[in-house]
Specification:
12 helices, alpha/beta
Length: 377
């Protein structure tokens, strides 16, 4: 992988590449990119955990919420999952519908989209008993969704970004990647040449502090535009980790959020473990909401994942008077619920944004009623 990066730099006009080009290569190269490799990435043997790693409850809660929408005729039984990973979420979702919502399951169409051939092989094996699943390599391949639901979990945090830094001369400059005398990769600052970067910084009122870094989500708009364009009417539910505009100004975030994860360890130097390490950034939630408004979507609901799961009814999965045996099914289920909602758990890091398209005010009110199951509010 290092040779691929060096070749990219050497053949470039100005002898450097942007962080966007770097991430595109190390994450998505067809042969050596991290997401394309035949390696376990999720779970104990991988590099990171997702909410679905905890067990089946996460997928079941989303499935139950989806089914409430379908039963109220707000959407049709069509569900699209983008970035299906190892298929755990889809398996939990489909198994719940098959067991608890047989009428919906009979008509349910489940699209799962993943560019990784390795992930698709895992998904097809895990979901082989479900005949209502269709597999796609990318969003472009699916037909227009007339009235369904599009779901993604950690999609936008994996997209390539550009990186800027505020220098001691009170100017923003772009951070690029070049080569030092020993043929090693290194960073360098250059003047910003892309008007879209200037526009983003001005639009989001980043004033800048000495040494501050900000990731510019250059791919977010393209991906979101394609995503929402596939939906004539329905719901987009996005789960990811990120910050609102105010949160980006916190002193401890001055160096930005671009990080690597390698065998469950966070790596601040992302110029190492090339192609063998996940790269990720926290997303700009306000930018995603703005993109929704530009496309005439309604930003109907936004919350941290803990409160969202409570609103969606996760407490219904608690089993009263469960056995004290820590190996019993009941005990394990209650422990999984606790892991999803207790402070210090995985839900501390995530947020959920629910957007609607082409829906009436009455339909939007009904959706809010159907995700107001948190009796402790």
């Amino acid at each position: 992988m290092k040779n691929l990066i060096l070749n990219e730099i050497n053949k470039s006009k100005d002898h450097f590449i942007t962080y966007e080009q770097f991430m595109e290569k190390v994450l998505y190269d067809p042969d050596k990119g991290y997401y394309q490799k035949d390696l376990e990435k999720i779970g104990r043997k991988g590099d990171f955990y997702t909410s679905s790693s905890i067990g089946s409850i996460y997928g079941e809660v989303i499935a139950a919420t989806f089914c409430r929408f379908v039963k109220q005729k707000l959407i049709d039984p069509l569900f699209v999952e983008i970035g299906g990973g190892n298929g755990q979420f889809a398996s939990s979702f489909l198994a719940y519908c098959e067991k608890n919502e047989t009428a919906i399951f009979k008509d349910l169409i489940y699209h799962i989209i993943d560019e990784s051939k390795y992930h698709q092989s895992l998904q097809k094996e895990k979901l082989k008993n479900f005949s209502n699943v269709q597999f796609f390599r990318n969003l472009i391949k699916i037909e227009k969704i007339n009235n369904g639901m599009i779901f993604s979990n950690e999609l936008f945090d994996a997209l390539p970004v550009r990186v800027v830094e505020f220098n001691d001369e009170s100017q923003w400059q772009e951070v690029i990647i070049t080569i030092d005398e020993q043929n090693n990769l290194k960073e360098r600052l250059i003047d910003i040449l892309d008007d879209d970067i200037h526009k983003f910084l001005i639009q989001n009122k980043f004033q800048g502090k000495n040494g501050q870094r900000v990731e510019i989500p250059v791919s977010m708009g393209k991906v979101f535009d394609l995503l929402q364009s596939k939906l004539d009417q329905g719901i987009i539910l996005t789960v990811d980790y990120g910050f609102t505009r105010e949160e980006w100004d916190a002193p401890h975030r001055i160096k930005g959020s671009l990080r690597g994860y390698y065998k469950h360890e966070m790596k601040s130097n992302i110029l190492e473990n090339l192609g063998d390490m996940d790269l990720t950034t926290h997303i700009h939630w306000d930018e995603l909401k703005r993109l929704g408004m530009e496309s005439k979507l309604e930003n109907l609901y936004f919350s941290n994942q803990r409160n969202a799961l409570l609103d969606f009814g996760v407490l219904n999965w608690l089993i009263p008077h469960a056995q004290s045996n820590p190996f019993s099914i009941e005990y394990k289920q209650n422990r999984a619920v606790q892991s999803l909602i207790m402070p210090g758990g995985i839900s501390d890091s995530f947020q959920m944004l629910l957007q609607t398209k082409g829906m009436t005010e009455e339909q939007q009110i009904k959706i809010k009623e159907l995700i107001s199951l948190n009796e402790f509010k």
